[in-house]
Design goal:
With about 120 residues, this protein is of the alpha+beta class. It has one domain: Pnp Oxidase, Chain A (Roll). A hairpin with a 2-residue loop joins strand 3 and strand 4.
Length: about 120
């Protein structure tokens, strides 16, 4: 099976990032896909964004909401993308994939004045 195929039909991605000390941090997150690229939209000041800025080497695997793996870990390269066109595309893909719940959360985020970051993830295997 193609490494990218294992993410098809899954709602969550376990994103393993690394602290400066080398300690790994695993976080289940919503994700979307466009071609061969995976995207994660998260709060801009989150730990995972800070860790990706320091070290873009990550591992990803499909998972359940609680982080339980539903596939194999795949090495990947992540980067924080700051492009309004990419942000709009990812927002559209998330609405399409997650439906009403994503709209409700987006409205709540506007009231809280959350600022989001897009993590672009490319598999290395």
């Amino acid at each position: 099976m193609d490494q990218l195929e294992q993410f098809t039909d899954h709602k969550f991605l376990n994103l393993e990032t690394f602290r400066k000390s080398g300690e790994s941090m695993k976080t289940p997150v919503w994700f979307t896909q466009d071609g061969g690229t995976l995207y994660v939209r998260t709060v801009a000041n989150s730990g995972k964004v800070k860790r990706v800025h320091n070290n873009g080497k990550v591992n990803v695997a499909p998972c359940a909401v609680d982080g339980k793996l539903l596939g194999e870990w795949v090495p990947a390269q992540a980067q924080h993308v700051q492009d309004p066109a990419v942000d709009q595309k990812v927002a559209r893909l998330i609405r399409k994939k997650y439906g009403l719940i994503s709209v409700v959360l987006a409205i709540r985020s506007r009231f809280r004045h959350d600022v989001y970051a897009i993590l672009e993830i490319k598999l290395l295997g």
